[in-house]
Amino acid sequence: MSVSQFGVFAASISAPLGIGKVELDGSEVPGFVCEAYAAENAEDITASGGWKNLLLRSKTVL
Asked: Full-prediction pTM beyond 0.85?
């Protein structure tokens, strides 16, 4: 992705999301970040193993 394409992409990301450094397996890599205020009342999905597993589990419950 060119720098100009990245700029267009990054500008299209709505708050509370953004691009920043995230820790992944002990390394810092570029990734999506979320403003802390948006997660204040969010459900902790850690025990489900991630959002994909949560969605799969939700579909089987319905």
From this structure: no
